[in-house]
Structure formats: C-alpha cells, structure tokens
C-alpha cells in the first residue's frame, strides 16, 4: 500500500497564502476526508499532492520519494484524480470516456488490452453506469456525468484515489452509493482522499478527517473527535446538533454564530 507524507507544505496562489505549513502522513487502506469552509485550501492540498501546484516550501513524498522528482507518468499510474466540476467538451461515448482512465498504462500507439477492458468494465459496473455505456457523455445530466467521471478515475486502478467533491450534483441515493464505493476501495487497500462538504457523510464513512481552516490544519483525527461543537463553531462559524440516527453519526448545522 502506498504512503504519502506531506512535510511543511506552504503554497501561495498569487499573493494569497493558500496553505501554511501543512504536515500529514496518509496511509493506504484508509478513507481520509478533507473538509473545511470555502477557501480553506482543500482543493489546493489535493492538487499539491498531485504535483499540479508548486510549493514555496515543503514537499510531498510518495513512498519516501519526492513527488517533484517523479515522472508525471509514474504519478499518473500511482494517483487517480477526480477533479471537481469538470466540464466535458468532446462528444465521446461513455465507454470511451471511461477508457481514458487506462491511458497512464498504455504505451504510445498501443491498443487496449484484455486487462484494460476488464478494468473499464469493472469501473462501469462499480459506478452503476452500465445503462449509460453507449450514451454520449456531453448529453448526460450532472449526476450521471459525475458518476461517469468517477468511473474514469477508478479505471486507472491506482493505489491512491483523490476525489475532489465527488458528491456534487448527486441525489441522496447516489451520494450514499459513492461513499460506500469509496469506503470499499479503502478497505481493499487504496488510499482514498476525498474533499467533502457533507459533514454527516464525512462522519459516517471516513476513517479520518483533516479539517482545514485558512490554509492550516485546524484538526486531524477520528471523525468523532474532529467534528465537535467547538471545531464547528470556530471553523465554520455555526452552531450544530451532533447526534446519531440508526447508529450512524449525524451533523446538522442549526444557525450561524452571532
């Protein structure tokens, strides 16, 4: 299983400090939720792990190797990425779009192998988009498109999966389905890092939560420890009800702090 270490990471976007001295060790076989208010640095942290933004200070290590020194092809095979709000511009059918997830494994001018096709079929089945296989991706609804793009990420079969707001545009049933799927991937050994806004689903499914605020880690640990009234008041500025329903944790923001 892959291990990612983040050491003293500091990143600015223009003149704005987006991350300030982030330290974290992320182990395979866990579902880690990254939460925090808008502008807290969640997506920037995800992009930094992928090497898509250059740090001013600090580094990201993938199995003790400095990610900045690794070939992009190696990172692409190691970390699958589901970016937030991705727009589709080309009218590919769904199966061909999912097949793009196999590109990191293909040599130039090579053809999809039986193993590649098996990975594509598995990803389509896992995300419940079999009925969409021959549809044109640009004609799908937002929720359908979100599941197809998740299938593309799963088709990589990478040991690390970063999903940035994977629940956006999904109805409640498919939100639960995706969180169950991410949890199953983690139980199978994958390091799953998910940027989330739904605090109840984060509390229910994640093994660990990183709570970001103003580019810093405000709390890191078990969901029951991170999602408490004090942290929610300080970071989100809300008063919340925390309890359980059918044995599962529930977090409901009630009002903004005066």
From TrEMBL:
State the protein's purpose. Part of the ABC transporter complex HmuTUV involved in hemin import. Responsible for energy coupling to the transport system.
Which molecular function GO terms apply here? Answer: ATP binding; ATP hydrolysis activity
Boundaries of every ABC transporter domain copy: 4-239
Is Translocase among the key words of this record? yes
Q: Which UniProt keywords apply?
A: ATP-binding, Nucleotide-binding, Translocase, Transport
For this protein, the record's PROSITE patterns field holds: ABC_TRANSPORTER_1 (PS00211), ABC_TRANSPORTER_2 (PS50893)
Pfam families xref list? ABC_tran
State the name under which the record lists this protein: ABC transporter ATP-binding protein
Lineage of the organism? Bacteria, Pseudomonadati, Pseudomonadota, Alphaproteobacteria, Sphingomonadales
Q: Which InterPro entries match?
A: AAA+_ATPase, ABC_transporter-like_ATP-bd, ABC_transporter-like_CS, P-loop_NTPase
- This protein's species is Sphingobium phenoxybenzoativorans
> Could you tell me which SUPFAM superfamilies the record lists for this protein?
P-loop containing nucleoside triphosphate hydrolases
Family the entry assigns: Belongs to the ABC transporter superfamily.
């Amino acid at each position: 299983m892959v291990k990612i270490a983040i050491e003293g990471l500091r990143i600015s976007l223009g003149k704005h400090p987006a991350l300030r001295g982030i330290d974290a060790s992320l182990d395979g076989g866990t579902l880690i939720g990254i939460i925090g208010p808008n502008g807290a640095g969640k997506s920037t942290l995800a992009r930094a792990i992928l090497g898509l933004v250059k740090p001013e200070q600090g580094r990201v290590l993938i199995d003790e190797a400095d990610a900045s020194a690794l070939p992009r092809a190696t990172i692409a095979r190691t970390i699958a990425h589901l970016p937030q709000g991705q727009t589709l511009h080309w009218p590919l059918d769904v199966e061909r779009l999912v097949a793009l997830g196999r590109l990191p494994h293909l040599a130039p001018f090579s053809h999809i192998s039986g193993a590649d096709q098996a990975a594509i079929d598995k990803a389509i089945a896992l995300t419940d988009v079999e009925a969409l296989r021959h549809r044109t991706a640009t004609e799908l609804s937002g929720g359908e498109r979100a599941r197809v793009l998740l299938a593309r990420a799963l088709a990589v079969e990478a040991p690390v999966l970063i999903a940035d707001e994977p629940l956006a545009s999904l109805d409640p049933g498919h939100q639960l389905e995706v969180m169950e799927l991410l949890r199953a991937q983690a139980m199978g050994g994958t390091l799953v890092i998910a940027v989330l806004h739904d605090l109840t689903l984060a509390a229910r499914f994640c093994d660990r939560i990183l709570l970001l605020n103003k580019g810093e880690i405000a709390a890191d640990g078990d969901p029951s420890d991170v999602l408490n009234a004090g942290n929610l008041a300080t970071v989100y500025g809300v008063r919340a009800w925390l309890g359980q329903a059918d044995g599962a944790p529930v977090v409901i923001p009630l009002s903004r702090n005066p």
